[in-house]
């Protein structure tokens, strides 16, 4: 069930919130868990059993780890159980998401068609498995390290994992961040939170429906197999995708954060205007921040972080971005995207790449990001090469413009690109000053959001809805 679908906007969430707010407080946790299970089953079907099995497994293992931690003499046993739990948490993710890819890699390296029958198994990817696997790993790790006590209530732990606003595509929420909020006695429906939660939800919906989806239509046309690409159409498709993926994913997380706030939960912020960054390092501090912090705290720092030799620091960078690439998708194109960002970060760290010396603000970082989004969006390496050659005019058969491109020069698309550029690339100081003026009074915020909601609903009814890009990860 997609947040921007009519059934969710007009039926599921309004009905859910009405019953949730009317129920006595001691029934709310049971109701929110039941609704979250129903929400997930609608999308995952029988594969819901995978998530439930992992849920029960991690809840039991965490209780054992908590007991063993209180007994220092059993430290070695605790570590073995912890490692085994991480391996078993990763096993379903590897099977469902990476098995076919790994067989292709093995075939490409050895030339042998081993395990070729895997592709005939009809393996389906469980919805949101990448996200809830990371939730399990962070929880088990924090319990093992003594950062949190294991949750004694299976119901509360299930709400942490299955809470429908963040279940499928994040943000990646740590157990310690909402542990107290899982106690229904400490979670209240506050009018101010409901108002601002609705405002954030509507802004996220508008990002998705009014900006991301129309730009995505252009991206789909440009990536149509067999289409004759020009330099103009290739760059237009690349720019549109840069903005599409940002407004699509940040729109989803805004909707998730807004809904959670209405229910009394506070999720961490996931985006901070990443295209306004003045360096690639800063870009990754602003883009998908909860995932970046996850890799930093659970992979990068345990590998030694910055407190090690120069060689190992660079090794750690490439390990992180290789894993980040594979987390997003099992394909060579994602590896190109991840390793590309790793190279840029390594060049910045070495002092070779210094975007600030160009005095172009955030434009260089935006261009780097746009170019690297090309393999991220492409279906395969061939399409990646075709797009990049057209963008940079490589070859004698790439025209700058064809008359057929006139259909891509739609006024609405150009207008949205201008709006997206202003929102994303204007400096932080000016942006927040303008936002402070426009959002100073709640009455004006309510008027803005009401207008945006009407426009978004009209768009959904007229043009339909599209799944969020990160649902596939």
Could you write a compact summary of the structure shown?
This protein is an all-alpha fold. The chain has helices at 6-22, 25-44, 48-69, 75-110, 129-145, 154-162, 164-167, 175-178, 191-222, 231-263, 280-286, 289-300, 310-328, 332-349, 363-377, 381-391, 411-425, 428-438, 442-463.
Strand-helix topology:
Blueprint: H1 6-22, H2 25-44, H3 48-69, H4 75-110, H5 129-145, H6 154-162, H7 164-167, H8 175-178, H9 191-222, H10 231-263, H11 280-286, H12 289-300, H13 310-328, H14 332-349, H15 363-377, H16 381-391, H17 411-425, H18 428-438, H19 442-463
Describe the model.
Helix 3 (48-69) runs parallel beside helix 5 (129-145), helix 10 packs across helix 15 and helix 15 (363-377) runs antiparallel to helix 16. It is built from 19 helices and no strands. The protein has 473 residues and is mostly helical.
């Amino acid at each position: 069930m997609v947040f921007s679908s009519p059934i969710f906007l007009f039926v599921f969430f309004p009905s859910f919130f009405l019953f949730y707010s009317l129920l006595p407080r001691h029934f709310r946790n049971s109701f929110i868990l039941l609704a979250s299970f129903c929400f997930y089953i609608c999308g995952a079907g029988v594969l819901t059993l995978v998530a439930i099995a992992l849920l029960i497994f991690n809840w039991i293992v965490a209780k054992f780890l908590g007991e063993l931690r209180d007994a220092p003499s059993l430290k070695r046993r605790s570590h073995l159980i912890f490692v085994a739990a991480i391996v078993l948490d990763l096993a379903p993710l590897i099977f469902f998401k990476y098995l076919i890819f790994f067989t292709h890699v093995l075939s490409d390296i050895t030339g042998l068609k081993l395990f070729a029958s895997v592709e005939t198994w009809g393996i389906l990817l469980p919805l949101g498995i990448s996200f809830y696997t990371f939730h399990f790993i962070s929880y088990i790790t924090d319990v093992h390290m003594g950062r949190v006590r294991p949750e004694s209530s299976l119901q509360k732990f299930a709400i942490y994992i299955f809470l429908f606003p963040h279940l499928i595509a994040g943000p990646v929420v740590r157990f310690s961040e909402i542990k107290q909020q899982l106690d229904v006695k400490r979670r209240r429906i506050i009018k101010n939170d409901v108002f601002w939660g609705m405002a954030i939800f509507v802004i996220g919906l508008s990002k998705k429906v009014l900006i991301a989806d129309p730009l995505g239509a252009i991206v789909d046309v440009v990536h149509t197999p067999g289409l004759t690409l020009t330099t103009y159409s290739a760059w237009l498709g690349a720019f549109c995708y840069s903005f599409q993926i940002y407004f699509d994913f940040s729109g989803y997380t805004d909707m998730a954060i807004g809904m959670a706030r209405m229910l009394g939960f506070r999720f961490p912020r996931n985006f901070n205007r990443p295209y306004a960054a003045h360096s690639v390092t800063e870009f990754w501090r602003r883009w998908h921040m909860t995932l970046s912090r996850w890799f930093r705290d659970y992979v990068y720092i345990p590998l030694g972080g910055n407190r090690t030799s120069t060689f190992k620091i660079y090794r750690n960078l490439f390990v992180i971005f290789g894993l980040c690439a594979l987390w997003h998708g099992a394909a060579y194109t994602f590896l190109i995207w991840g390793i590309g960002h790793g190279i840029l970060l390594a060049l910045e760290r070495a002092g070779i790449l210094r975007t600030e010396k160009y005095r172009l603000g955030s434009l260089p970082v935006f261009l780097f990001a746009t170019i690297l989004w090309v393999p991220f969006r492409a279906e395969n390496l061939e399409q990646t090469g075709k797009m990049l050659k057209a963008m940079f005019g490589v070859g004698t058969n790439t025209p700058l413009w064809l008359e057929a491109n006139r259909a891509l020069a739609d006024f609405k698309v150009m207008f949205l690109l201008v709006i997206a550029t202003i929102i994303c690339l204007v400096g932080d100081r000016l942006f927040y000053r303008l936002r402070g003026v426009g959002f100073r009074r709640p009455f004006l915020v309510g008027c803005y959001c009401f207008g945006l909601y009407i426009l978004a609903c009209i768009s959904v009814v007229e043009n339909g809805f599209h799944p969020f890009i990160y649902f596939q990860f």
